């Protein structure tokens, strides 16, 4: 075997080998920059790259698979191979990764009696269908067949969710049946209960630990777990957290670079390492996930910068250069090199060209579904973004009470296209008084899915079904007769800007950027905007929100072109952008930074 797990070391062609890896998520970086990212990973001293594989990106619908553009995993593997980098592949059904629903496709929620991550046919049948499509694409690149994939993961941090070993064995069996013959591993928190629940050490599957500090203490715990089971394995931290993710309304979290370098040295003196993240990238579109604290969901920001050695936008940080000095001390490190640097440009402010209210172009950019009662996003086959629920009702009083049941995540209420209020999470269900002096009125409810929880038991909560699941009560009765408009942001080229505008309502605003030279990277300044998303030439850059802490959206040059570029802002908070501003650096709201 060209790569083996020995008693105390990993063995590459029979010789001890220290894995020095960095995490890069191909799906969070534009493909044109994969080479630069992987080159810089190697220039820092890494000999391997680790990546998750998000199921929901690759199978967006039960009968639809997607492996193009930023989902072209094979191309990413090939680029790594060109750079002589080994790959640790994590194709487990669940990835966490602060990714929407932890990588699970939301259409699973439509399957009766399904329990995610369990040894049940309701879950394992769709898992097998997915892996039967995915694994034949990557198995030819295993090191056993002349490729560069040296290990694959069975499940991710399962010990923080369940302890069903039959489930883990079922995933392993699916992998083996699809020709996986490189060593397999699990990764869990480095404490005894998590390892006992989530590892398959009794089957001689490599257990690895995830942590970001107290390197010796955590490695001692991993070693203790081996000893308790009379096994010997090389020590590895599969996720050495060099930074952290950020959430809306909270301070940016950072980690001291000198502290990271010292902890990394302590770890590398005893074990192999995977820096999580090496470059975090961006949650383009609606892919940002959500964490939970108690009964509150905490959506995460579009940026997945992670305060990593390479920043979201591809620029090496102080951590990068300090880690170079650490890694060059180890014989298995790649040769230290100067990194490839990105370049940024602040485009001139763009004047507003066209605008139209959502209500005036609704038919052009949505699909309509009628039903007696409200249906949630999953029932409508629309899993991300927005749905507008519309009904017409009669009132026999000047004021009518409205209540919305079991809705997530954020509801804007309009009475005859006039904004009434916004309810978010725990506010939803409280009484709303509608002024109804004209008997018949039009009620519109714009509901936004801000991301499903990606970690822990809250993934099983009813709140992960988005849209309106329960219903809408007027006076004391559940109202029936609903038009449901699924907003499809791939249809924005059909927007009818000849319709009426009303900046008090959710609206589309169009700007034109004309480039005579080759495009360059930039940032769109969102500090004066309210809440919404920005689409450039059909590419959804992601969410922005005035709550911060991020007040920018990263605009990679490959999303632009010479000539005319269309930029559309979908703004939901009644803010009319008369100009669109750019920046040559990221912009943050003034919130006190929080150190790890």
Automatic annotation (TrEMBL):
Domain called Glycoside hydrolase 35 catalytic: residue spans: 10-329
Domain Beta-galactosidase galactose-binding: 506-565
GO molecular function terms listed in the Swiss-Prot or TrEMBL record: beta-galactosidase activity
Segments passing through the bilayer: none
GO biological process: carbohydrate metabolic process
SUPFAM superfamilies from the UniProt entry: (Trans)glycosidases, Galactose-binding domain-like
Domain of life, per lineage: Bacteria
Sorted UniProt keywords: Glycosidase, Hydrolase
Domain Beta-galactosidase 1-like first all-beta: 376-487
Active-site residues, record numbering mapped to chain: 157 (proton donor), 239 (nucleophile)
InterPro entries with a match to the protein in the record: B-gal_1-like, BetaGal1-like_ABD1, BetaGal_gal-bd, Galactose-bd-like_sf, GH, Gly_Hdrlase_35_cat, Glycoside_Hdrlase_35
Signal sequence range: none
Similarity comment: Belongs to the glycosyl hydrolase 35 family.
Protein name (Swiss-Prot/TrEMBL): Beta-galactosidase
């Amino acid at each position: 075997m060209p790569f083996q797990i020995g008693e105390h070391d990993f063995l590459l062609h029979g010789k001890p080998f220290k894995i020095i890896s960095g995490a890069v998520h191909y799906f969070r970086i534009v493909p044109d920059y994969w080479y630069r990212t992987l080159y810089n990973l190697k220039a820092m001293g890494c000999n391997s790259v680790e990546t998750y594989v998000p199921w929901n990106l690759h199978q967006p619908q039960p009968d639809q698979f997607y492996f193009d553009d930023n989902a072209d995993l094979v191309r990413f593997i090939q680029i790594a191979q060109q750079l002589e980098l080994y790959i640790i592949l994590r194709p487990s059904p669940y990835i966490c990764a602060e990714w929407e629903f932890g990588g699970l496709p939301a259409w699973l929620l439509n399957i009766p009696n399904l329990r995610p991550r369990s040894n049940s046919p309701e879950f394992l049948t769709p898992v097998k269908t997915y892996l039967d499509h995915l694994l034949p694409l990557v198995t030819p690149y295993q090191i056993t067949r002349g490729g560069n994939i040296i290990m694959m993961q069975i499940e991710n941090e399962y010990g923080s969710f369940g302890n069903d070993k039959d489930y883990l064995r079922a995933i392993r069996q699916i992998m083996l049946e699809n020709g996986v013959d490189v060593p397999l591993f699990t990764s869990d928190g480095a404490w005894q209960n998590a390892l006992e629940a989530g590892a398959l050490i009794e089957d001689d599957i490599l257990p690895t630990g995830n942590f970001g500090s107290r390197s010796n203490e955590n490695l001692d715990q991993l070693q203790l777990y081996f000893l308790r089971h009379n096994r010997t394995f090389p020590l590895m931290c599969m996720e050495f957290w060099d930074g952290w993710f950020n959430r809306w309304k909270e301070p940016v979290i950072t980690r001291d670079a000198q502290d990271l370098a010292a902890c990394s040295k302590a770890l590398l003196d005893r074990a192999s390492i995977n820096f999580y993240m090496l470059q975090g990238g961006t949650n383009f579109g609606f892919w940002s996930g959500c964490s939970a604290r108690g009964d509150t969901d905490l959506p995460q920001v579009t940026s997945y910068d992670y305060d990593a050695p390479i920043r979201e936008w591809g620029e090496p940080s102080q951590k990068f250069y300090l880690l170079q000095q650490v890694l060059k001390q180890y014989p298995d490190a790649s040769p230290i090199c100067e990194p490839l640097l990105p370049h940024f440009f602040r485009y001139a402010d763009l004047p507003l060209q066209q605008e139209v209210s959502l209500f005036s172009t609704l038919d052009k950019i949505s699909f309509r579904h009628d039903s007696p009662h409200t249906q949630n996003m999953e029932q409508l086959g629309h899993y991300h973004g927005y749905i507008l629920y519309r009904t017409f009702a009669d009132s026999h009083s000047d004021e009518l009470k409205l209540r919305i049941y079991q809705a997530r995540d954020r509801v804007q209420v309009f009475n005859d296209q006039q904004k009434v209020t916004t309810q978010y999470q725990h506010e939803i269900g409280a009484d709303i008084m509608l002024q109804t002096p004209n008997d018949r009125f039009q009620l519109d409810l714009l509901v936004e899915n801000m991301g499903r929880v990606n970690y822990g038991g809250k993934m099983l909560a009813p709140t992960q079904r988005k849209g309106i699941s329960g219903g809408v009560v007027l006076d004391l009765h559940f109202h029936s007769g609903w038009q449901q408009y699924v907003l499809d942001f791939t249809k924005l080229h059909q927007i009818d800007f000849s319709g009426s505008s009303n900046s008090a309502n959710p609206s589309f605003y169009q700007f034109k950027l004309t480039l005579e030279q080759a495009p360059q990277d930039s940032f769109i300044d969102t500090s004066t905007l309210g809440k919404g998303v920005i689409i450039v030439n059909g590419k959804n850059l992601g969410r922005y929100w005035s709550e911060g802490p991020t007040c920018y959206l990263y605009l990679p040059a490959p999303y632009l072109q010479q000539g005319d570029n269309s930029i559309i802002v979908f703004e939901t908070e009644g803010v009319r952008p008369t100009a669109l501003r750019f920046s040559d650096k990221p912009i943050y709201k003034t919130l006190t930074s929080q150190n790890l």
